[in-house]
Amino acid sequence: MSDDIILETRGLTKEFKGFVAVRNVNLAVKRGTIHALIGPNGAGKTTVFNLLTKFLSPTAGHIFYKGADITGVAAAQIARKGMVRSFQISAVFPHLSVLENVRLALQRKRGGNFDFWRSERVLTGFNARAEELIAAVGLTAFRDTTAVELPYGRKRALEIATTLALEPEMLLLDEPTSGLGREDIGRIAELIRSAAANRTVLMVEHNLSVVADLSSIITVLQRGEVLAEGSYAEVSTNPQVVSAYMGTGHGAH
Questions:
Q1: What pLDDT, in 10s, does the model give residues 19-50?
Q2: Residue 215 in contact with residue 232, Cβ under 8 Å?
Q3: Per the CB 3.0–4.6 Å rule, which of 44, 55, 78, 199 could disulfide with 224?
């Protein structure tokens, strides 16, 4: 496995009671790229994602992160190694403010146990970094708003901020723009672009214009297998990809 591959799967397979959801998927994610996993409904994207993030165990095959076989390693350990799944583990505390949520994530990164009696100096340090992260995701005006009161798109931004507080080397995003209006989609896409400036991002995404805009490499799944891989220009003009999407009532553009 070459140094520029940060995450790799070999022969990744998942069966559910005789139904093969993912079959022999070989995926190689290059360091420093935004890599998208796309495909029509039922293609196995979510299953692959859940296998990579340890929500599921594979029936066969192996997963490697930074050259080490992590197939049998628990999700929490992988997060400590720098691979973090957003919108799942970044559970936002609904009745805490934006600032408190980001500060808690920073404390978690610092040492796991919430020792709230820490010195004022340490907490102020968290405040400064928290304010930076809040500004980076465009939430300064909402810093004292409780999470439950945030508009949906802003909640996504807060989830990204709490994930970035953990300083992941690799970020896995599960449908980051689903359910968002056009303006929010643009905002979240820009956040993903800036978050990817010094890390690797793998995302499952339905919105093909976001994929076209952000991703350097796209893997297309169909019926649990890799149908095609390449740049957006390559996969969107691939006749097999076009027919896979057309067959489900989606355009490929």
A1: 999 999 999 999 999 999 999 888 999 999 99
A2: yes
A3: 44
Query: Of 78, 77, 104, nearest to 90 (Cα)?
Result: 104
Q: Which two tokens stand for residue 117?
A: 């009696």
Q: Cα–Cα distances in Å, from 21 out to 13, 114, 129, 159?
A: 8, 40, 42, 29
Question: Which domains are assigned to the chain?
Answer: 1-73+171-176+200-253 (3.40.50.300)
86: β partners = 173
Amino acid at 166: L
Centroid of chain to Cα 211:
13
Whole-number Å distance between alpha carbons of 248 and 229: 19
- For the ranges 87-91, 174-178, 249-253, the maximum mean pLDDT occurs at 174-178
pLDDT tens per residue, range 114-131 = 555 566 666 677 888 999
CA angle 84, 9, 19 (to 5 degrees): 100
